[in-house]
Amino acid sequence: MKKLLILGAGTAGTMMLNKLRHRLDKKEWEITIVENDPNHYYQPGFLFVPFGIYNKTEIVKPKADFFPNHIHAVWDEVVKIEPENNQVLLKNNDPLAYDVLLIATGCTPDPAETPGLQGELWEKDIFTFYTYEGSCALHDKLENWEGGKLVINIVDMPIKCPPAPLEFTFLAEAFFTNKGMRDKVDITFVTPMSGPFTKPVASKMLSGLLAERNIHSVHDFYIEKVDEANKKIVSYDEKEVPFDLLITIPTNKGAAMVAASGLDEGDDLNFAVTDKHTLQSKQFENIFVIGDATNLPASKAGSVAHFEGEVLTENILEFIAGKPLTHQFDGHSNCFIETGYGQASVIDFNYEVQPLPGKFPVPGIGPLSLLGISRINHWGKLAFKWAYWNMLLKGIPFPISTNMSMAGKEEEAATEA
Amino acid sequence: MSEVLIAGKSVSVNEEGYLTDPSQWNREIAEQIAAEVNITLTPKHWEVLEYLREKQQAGEMLNIRKIGKSGIVDIKEFYQLFPGGPLKNASKIAGIPKPASCI
Ligand SMILES: Cc1cc2nc3c(=O)[nH]c(=O)nc-3n(C[C@H](O)[C@H](O)[C@H](O)COP(=O)(O)OP(=O)(O)OC[C@H]3O[C@@H](n4cnc5c(N)ncnc54)[C@H](O)[C@@H]3O)c2cc1C
Predict the structure, then answer these.
(1) Do A133 and A243 share a domain, yes or no?
(2) How far is CA A264 from the centre of its chain?
């Protein structure tokens, strides 16, 4: 029997497990998945829990519920990959050999990277909604918070789900308005980028919206540390922003074992060096990488993992058959951006084309309006949760094409930005 | 994209003033772009610029963090050398595209 080994049973690993089990001959291929946490968290839900929009119990399910039959699951931590020996070392179990390896170990926030974040103020006046525990703790804090200076700070890029910090900011503004205490809260969005978003047309639309909602924004702010005594965040060039409540999006890092295995770029961020079109490791041809674990210049998002999955399944099948890899990922990303008050925007882009206005997914008709703000976009965001549990994880294709389409998009907007 | 004259040489730049072809760059061009943002280039600046050009040519992603780990400068020194937006300024002076490290 030949062995296909998947590391990580999050969004991408679980999806690929389902797709590949369906496509690979059971008599020829044994599939094993290794994972150290039995709970599957619906991470997009972390954004809604602090405001009581989702309950903390509705975003967790057992990972094993989404595994197909005829696979092996090993509940353990991956310590190291030994590509030369085609095996993976585990913390508590014997090494696992592989013919083909798929890395899907994602990334996680690491507050320890920034001095003062995880000190005395941690989960008293400094919170993150980027983890399940953090999101739940913030919910409890917001229930009784009496107001003051609310600061939302992105420590460094790249982060998973790049719009999430802005969405949090818009949802917070609406939350305090609905609570009748907006006048007691001063909101500031602080980012290391030169604008609220990474792509020009969307950035312009979103900075307009921040101003409209009376939210201050500070750009080009690269945090060095938290001044805990004076409750300020301090940048490398000594700019300061005071806070009463700090919401941090800490440095996002891949799994430490990626660097321990020598598969990263050597910058301590632990992202695996991956071909941006084929999703094959740049170092070893029988290793593939998907989702947040890669170093691709694409968004780290569940929707991206989904589009990558369509390409990667075909490429793995071609690799196994000894054929050249002919399927190419174009960087396609599609995400909803919550803007508060039951409305949302939606963006669709790839490596080459930035988000543009238009209608989606049916050109000219929609029903979703790209870069526009509407209630139906918000319903789309909420429907994503159903699609995530019932389609995405099970590897069922969405009615959206894998490669981005220019149909329905307004190209003139790009030149005006 | 347009053609401009920098330090007596015609080069193509994008809307934000970044050189679109790193091979058109030379030291005089770097000095003139630096002067526009009030920076006088010292040997330390040149070391950083060479590093950026090298990494860009190798197709590596550039970000402030990586420069802080380069062994040439730490992040604080990088900010002191190229005040404001150090990566943006340094890339412009180095004649390489604006780094797309922010996705
Ligand atoms: C607040 C927030 C909001 C978001 N909103 C959206 C959204 O609206 N839309 C969207 O598309 N995406 C969104 N995302 C992003 C999305 O959740 C991720 O991009 C997606 O889950 C990535 O899938 P993945 O499989 O690569 O990583 P993950 O799903 O994180 O899975 C990685 C798995 O690997 C396991 N693992 C790691 N290291 C080891 C090891 N050494 N040994 C064993 N197992 C290991 C982990 O336990 C985990 O189960 C959001 C994320 C956050 C944090």
Answers:
(1) yes
(2) 19
Nearest to A172 by CA among A181, B81, A14, B97: A181
Final residue of a domain: which of A251, A284, A305? A251
Q: Cβ separation of A193 and B102 shorter than 8 Å?
A: yes
Chain B's closest residue to A273, CA to CA, is B60
* Residue A94: domain span: 2-106+255-320
- On whether residue A299 sits in a domain, the answer given is yes
Atom 47, ligand 1: residue with shortest CA distance: A37
Across the A:B interface, residue pairs with CB atoms under 8 Å apart total 50
From A205, A226, A251, the end of a domain falls on A251
Ligand 1: centre distance to CA A110 (Å): 14
Question: What is the C-alpha to C-alpha distance for residues A218 and A230, in angstroms, rounded to an integer?
Answer: 19
C-beta of A35 in contact with ligand 1 (< 6 A): yes
- Measured at the CA of A192, the angle between CA A186 and CA A197, to 5 degrees, comes to 80
Q: Is the shortest distance between the CB of A77 and ligand 1 below 6 Å?
A: yes
Out of A194, A237, A298, whose CB is closest to B103? A298
pLDDT, residue A417, reads 45
Residue A357's nearest CA partner among A140, A165, A202, A195 is A202
Residue ranges in chain A whose pLDDT is less than 70? 412-417
User: Does one domain contain both A288 and A231?
Assistant: no
Does residue B100 belong to any structural domain of this protein?
A: no
Express each pLDDT in A124-147 by its tens digit: 999 999 999 999 999 999 999 999
Give the closest residue (by CA) to ligand 1 atom 29.
Answer: A10
B102 catalytic, yes or no? yes
Query: For the complex shown, is ipTM > 0.90?
Result: no
Backbone angles phi, psi at B83, to 5 degrees: -60, 160
Which of the residues B5, B58, B100, B102 is marked catalytic?
A: B102
CATH code, domain with A197: 3.50.50.60
A135 lines ligand 1 (CB under 6 A): no
Tally of domains within chain A? 3
Domain identity same for A158 and A242:
yes
* C-alpha A270 – ligand 1 centre gap (Å): 15
Q: Does residue A247 contact residue A153 with C-beta atoms inside 8 Å?
A: yes
Q: What is the pLDDT of residue A415?
A: 54
> Per residue in A181-201, pLDDT tens?
999 999 999 999 888 887 778
**Residues of chain A with C-beta less than 8 angstroms from the C-beta of B79:** 222, 236-237
Give A143: exposed, middle or buried? Use CB within 10 Å, 0-12, 13-18, 19+: exposed
**Is residue A30 assigned to a domain?**
yes
Query: Block means of pLDDT (10 residues each) for chain B, length 103 residues?
Result: 87 90 94 94 97 90 88 95 91 90 49
Q: What is the pLDDT of residues A265-277, one digit of tens each?
A: 887 899 999 999 9
Asked whether residue A183 falls in the same domain as residue A263, the answer is: no
Distance CA A72, CA A66 (A): 13
Give the total number of structural domains in chain B: 1
